[in-house]
Amino acid sequence: MFSPQGPSVRELVVQALSSVEHGYDLLAPKFDHTPFRTPDGLLCATADALRPFGPFGDGLDVCCGTGAGMRVLKPLCRGRTTGVDFSAGMLAQARRTHPDAEWERADVRDLPFTGAFDLAVSFGALGHFLPAERPALFAGVFRALRPGGLFAFPIGAPPPITSTWYWALLGFDAVMRVRNAVWRPSFVMYYRTCPLQAVRDDLAAAGFTVTTTPLTDLGQRADGSPRGRLVLARRPS
User: Fold this and answer.
1) Half-sphere exposure of 1 toward its Cβ, with a 13 Å CA cutoff?
2) 38-158+195-234: what CATH class?
């Protein structure tokens, strides 16, 4: 799973026993050499799905990490591109990789923008927020967008209960819950706390008009349904 340039088992253990912010500060120099970085295939599929809705003006990557989402924003946005994250270490890596973008350190549950962007994206971040925290996150993105602006992020289809992947994710979430029950600071990272319908409901409650489109580049499951969908949350004009 990890390249020779990636973190050691010891480094991963230290990260897992830290807070989310400090854990990512520690992991940042080697993050792009781990499976946790958003895969290029998912970035390309998202860009392809968004292209018919563009071009856009200014773009925002919410929970940007080391800046992989710029591969989606830059080809689609004619204006400035900005990434926001609360990990100073991840932002430092992002600045080195994408010096032509703007980077802002902030807690995305309290985004410091108002009516500043036409497109916002996010990749792999929802698991870092408990369900009770999503309304503040989505309200902040809504506020950051201009009227008519679009918030887009991919979400995978749930694996069937008969698959190994289903039980692996269930086991991971169970381990994280036990860890957070007995160890402080907590490290919030769950895979099964953001089902599509619950996310749609929270987006609608924040004021968005919500649709989805299949990420056809990712293929289909055995039953013919898409492996992933792009959630499209539009701030009304």
Assistant:
1) 9
2) alpha beta
